[in-house]
Amino acid sequence: MNPELSAGAAEILRGRTVFCGFSGGSDSLYLLLALNKCSAPFHFQLRAVHFNHGLRGAESDADEAWCCEKCAELAVPFLSVPLNVGGRREAGEGDEAAARRLRLDAWKKLCRETPGAVVALGHQADDRTENLLLRLFRGSNATGLTSMRLHSVVEGVEFVRPLLHLSRADMEAELRRRGECWRTDSTNRTDCYGRNFLRLNLIPMLAKRFPFAPGGLRRSLEVLEQDADYLECEAHRVYAERLCTPHDWVSLHPAIRCRALRYFLNSGFPGFVPDSALTERFSATVASPPENGECVRIPLAGFPDCAICVESERVFLHRFTATAEIVWNLKETPEIRFGESVLTAAQVPAAELKRADAETVFFSADLPSVLHVGSRRDGDRMVPFGKHHPVLLKKLYSDCGIKSYSRDAVPVLRTAEGAVLWVAGVRRSALFPVAPDAGTVWRIQQTLQKSGHET
């Protein structure tokens, strides 16, 4: 048998460990046979990997057994990975999305265990057409429309698709000619899944009405990939030259900005793909950046403790160091750590009052010995020492020049009932003042283990 790989695919695989995704279907069988033929001349180690999704009961198990036997016949090492898609779905996730996530997680694990490995997948020209249509319906740009490429890296996993130049019909005809058989997933005959609907209904209907459509779509993919490649290269060049300020970003053409934003985000969160809503919000924010030292935080889906931060002269990624609230017994545990702050409590003579500063506060001896230390809360306010009216903590932070993205790291000392006593390093409240004739007082000090509020 002489199955074909696309030009250049074998060179990518040369000298490496190659994990071949092997479902037992015609596409993956054709790929496995082609890779097995090329493994010796291109000096790569081939391993077949089968994912048992657990969605079709005995049929799934039969597929696994067949794949194992076929690999034994070919003397190709075989690994089956149970995914249990039905039992591992996340909230709001369908079978297809859950399966994709779990497969990627498994590939990441295998590639971590085998540094330098590459994953070969049996996607072919028809899959690429289906992907084009699905992404077109979702509003993708040229990069998204051509995301199924010969070579790509997703969350650190290197993928190669050597069969994108071949159609499913051509491969199956060749397999039949050689007397090969393969497994057929019974769910492929139903149109309940999006790709199946396209394959079984829409694409045949288009081909019947417009016979030139299948070939035209493939040619469109070729030229769209060229366009996308140019835009991506230009965006990477611009990104590498340092995009620091909102003006730097807003001066870019939108087609370059959205791609440069992806490179920017991938520097901190590999594999993160910004959707249109995030891209539009980012573009609007850099077009009208905040003033007066304020900072706009743009949250990142899936990363609740991270955000893009936009200031008047700076754009950067920030990870928030949120710390769980601590119940602090001043007498039993005189020293605690909250994030980068170490807080110490001691009962001292009132004469120590002369040593007060921004990191040291004093309270009367009747201060409760059990307090709470945590981050700010929405709507927090207190009456500052020496004042008579409550002030929002937000204003106190602003007056001290503490950026909004750093405020969660500032310890806030409260009573068990939630009344704010002290915002460490910022201001203490009017509660529990020290009387002029006091003998003993509580002294609470803050020591920073790492200077500054930014990360």
CATH architecture of the largest domain: 3-Layer(aba) Sandwich
**CATH fold descriptor of the largest domain:** Rossmann fold
Q: Can you identify the CATH class of the largest domain?
A: Alpha Beta
- Uncertain runs are 451-455
Overall pLDDT confidence: 91
Largest sheet, described in full?
6 strands, mixed
Helix/strand/pairing category? alpha+beta
Beta percentage is 15-25%
Number of helical segments with 4 or more residues: 13
Order the strands across the largest sheet as they lie in space: 3-2-1-4-6-5
CATH homologous superfamily annotation of the largest domain? HUPs
Radius of gyration: 30 Å
Provide structural commentary.
The protein is an alpha+beta fold and 455 residues long. The chain has three domains: 9-219, Rossmann fold (3-Layer(aba) Sandwich); 242-319, no CATH class; 326-448, Phenylalanyl-tRNA Synthetase, Chain B, domain 3 (3-Layer(bba) Sandwich). 36% of the residues lie in helices and 21% in strands. The protein contains 13 helices and 20 strands. It has helices spanning 9-13, 26-39, 58-74, 95-113, 125-137, 142-145, 168-177, 194-209, 213-240, 246-250, 254-266, 276-287, 393-399, and strands at 17-21, 45-52, 78-82, 118-120, 151-154, 157-160, 296-300, 303-310, 315-319, 326-329, 335-338, 341-349, 360-364, 370-374, 381-382, 391-392, 412-414, 420-423, 427-428, 440-448. Strands 3-2-1-4-6-5 form a six-stranded mixed sheet, sandwiched between helices. Strands 10-14-17-18-19 form a five-stranded antiparallel sheet, with no helix packed on it. A four-stranded antiparallel sheet has the order 11-12-20-13, with no helix packed on it. A hairpin with a 4-residue loop joins strand 8 (303-310) and strand 9. Helix 5 (125-137) packs across helix 8. The longest helix is centred in the middle third of the chain and has 28 residues, at 213-240. Mean pLDDT is 91; it is low at 451-455.
